[in-house]
Amino acid sequence: xxxxxxxxxxxxxxxxxxxxxxxxxxxxxxxxxxxxxxxxxxxxxxxxxxxxxxxxxxxxxxxxxxxxxxxxxxxxxxxxxxxxxxxxxxxxxxxxxxxxxxxxxxxxxxxxxxxxxxxxxxxxxxxxxxxxxxxxxxxxxxxxxxxxxxxxxxxxxx
Amino acid sequence: xxxxxxxxxxxxxxxxxxxxxxxxxxxxxxxxxxxxxxxxxxxxxxxxxxxxxxxxxxxxxxxxxxxxxxxxxxxxxxxxxxxxxxxxxxxxxxxxxxxxxxxxxxxxxxxxxxxxxxxxxxxxxxxxxxxxxxxxxxxxxxxxxxxxxxxxxxxxxx
Lengths: 158, 158
Description:
homodimer
């Protein structure tokens, strides 16, 4: 880390404002044959910045107490939080410090998925379908793979 | 206004975080024959949002105590602040509440232009050239109209 740790700790309200602008709560449901149901639920929280602002990603990591700073694409970096334990920290943070834009609606759906995963519901067919529906309400495009796959359609016709 | 005024006043630190993500400090130098020197300096502060978050623009307007919410493009709205008196409020706000990303560098250049305009320096050839140089260091593309115009090049050869 180094230099970026010398800087003042970011204020939590600042973090919420920045995430209202730049943060992304995202759930994907991906085909993965090695999983019991053939699908993997992958929730993720991300903040992308140009590499010139990489240091602010480390400062965010410090306040949120989780995540890794990795390359996003080209000259863009991201703070990426995956894994249920760390995502529980994210949910707790934004439950305590309320988002102010409609990003809050996405967060609420995201928090619902995390809560279901805490109960292991993503490992049941019913829960997986429910999560796929919630994910399709969030960041629109990508997330319908599960719901629109012919396999899923076949299964639901059973 | 109406409903959006019912909401809680935005925290100033939140505003700084949001502007670090979404705000834009911008100075253009535009050809305008009716101006004494033939060029107009137009500094502007802007926050653009999808219309679904129009209400947050009104809440920002309330905290910053200036600006107008107008259509940006298509389904996007913006809080736009123009005019030296209101821009002085913006400069004062972000001098008191420090930006945390490299957007601060842009802000510092912006503040320098506003300070020069307060002294009327944009109305002198020397000041105008100085402002055009500063503007060219900010949001890169558009701002070089003045410095690259054949007219300006002719003048500086005098």
